[in-house]
Every structure is written in structure tokens, then in C-alpha cells.
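Input C-alpha cells:
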């Protein structure tokens, strides 16, 4: 389920590089903010610590939040959209590693 949301966000981010109506970008902000929050929570829950993925997706959620929009130039948004699309694809394709069994040798 989450991987479909990540792929949808990535596809929408790629489409955002085209000149589209303002309503599309408002919908994009909502979808990307929700997907980024879920991804940040997923990666935090995986290791119970903050790493680069949690920081990136948390920052992405703040950048794309629909309540307090951040206004940047179109050329800057282009690069942000493409980088975010790539990392959403990474989040969708990444498989969760099973936890290693803790044995006597691990101590």
C-alpha cells in the first residue's frame, strides 16, 4: 500500500516539471506531504533512530506542506521535484530487512 503511494508521489513530482494549472501543484503539496510523513515515520520505526532518510523525508514534508507553502523559483522547484521523485522511488523499492536473530555470539 505504501509503495503505491510513494510511486504516485514520484509520478506526480515528475509531472510537476511541466507547466500545469496551479490546482495541480496544490494537490501535489498535499500528496507529497502525506507520503513524506509516512516515509519518515516508516524509516524511523525501522531503526528507532533518526538517520538521513528520516531527516530528508521530514524536511520534504515541511517543504511541501500545504498549510504554510514555501515559494521558490520554478528552476529550483524543478531540481527539488526530480530529487524527491528519485528518493520516493528508492523508498518504494526498498525492501525491509528482517531483524537478525540475537544469539549468544552477538554479545
Amino acid at each position: 500500500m505504501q509503495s503505491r503511494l510513494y510511486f504516485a508521489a514520484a509520478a506526480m513530482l515528475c509531472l510537476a516539471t511541466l507547466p500545469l494549472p496551479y490546482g495541480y501543484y496544490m494537490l501535489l503539496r498535499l500528496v507529497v506531504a502525506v507520503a513524506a510523513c509516512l516515509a519518515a515515520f516508516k524509516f524511523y520505526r525501522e531503526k528507532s533512530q533518526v538517520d538521513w532518510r528520516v531527516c530528508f523525508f521530514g524536511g520534504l514534508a515541511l517543504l511541501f506542506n500545504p498549510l504554510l507553502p514555501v515559494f521558490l523559483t520554478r528552476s529550483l522547484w524543478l531540481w527539488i521535484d526530480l530529487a524527491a521523485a528519485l528518493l520516493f522511488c528508492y523508498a518504494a523499492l526498498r525492501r525491509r530487512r528482517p531483524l537478525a536473530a540475537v544469539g549468544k555470539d552477538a554479545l
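The chain has a mean pLDDT of 86. The first helix runs from residue 2 to 15.
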